[in-house]
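go over both lines:
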Amino acid sequence: MAPNPLFIDCQNLAFSSQFAQDRMQRAVQILGANVIQRFLCFALYLLGVNRSEIGHTLGVSPETAKSIIKAVNADGLRALEDRRRSVSTFLPPSRSEPAPIILRKTPACMVVDFGVEGRRLSIPSQNALQTRTVLLSMLNSGLLSTQQVAEAVGLTPGHTATLARRLEQEDISCLMDKRQGLKSEYRVTPEIKAELIQQFVVDTVTHGKASSQNISAELKERCQITVSARTVRHHLARIGLPTIRQTLPKLLAAGKKNSKT
């Protein structure tokens, strides 16, 4: 059988009382007498010394020696210190888990609460793009979950995850509403709408048809109004003019005929 490298035969060792005294004094100054006593108690126990002899050697009762040995076996290094201490003085402090980040939605703002007093981020409710950018960036950094962000911005978890990936790859532009340009074209004043109707009527009566491309070109040339063909088509449809394209010329002709009679 191979020899146990942890087994020590103390009978063949030479002990120096002078060295022992000097070293013990330094150790007591650093760790304290109680810690050293527990160290020696457990060391003698490992070397195979009887508990009664351990107690007699260290000047404690066998029951005290037994309690020390039992505590070290159960709790490790913490048992070497005073059990009344709430925190170890020589073990590294344990790492506490950080407080979870909580999202709270109020009528005025989106609140990002970091779980530490005084550490909150508030984003005004009307700043939707800013809210998405901040929360998706925190999602990409592992600070928030997909479910948290999805509930906060009102999207599905799948769509939220897609936007988070696109934000990393394409920057903030991917979060902007692609329909925004189309919406801005819809902002047509009543004066422009009047010109649209007038040009529609003229083209329909004169040519029997009115295309959005022609109306857009006519308005630009005659009134210096720039309205895209798509916007013209949108507003004509909302007013309902395309539905009278066939009947308008006949109605005007009938009106002229009745006025002559």
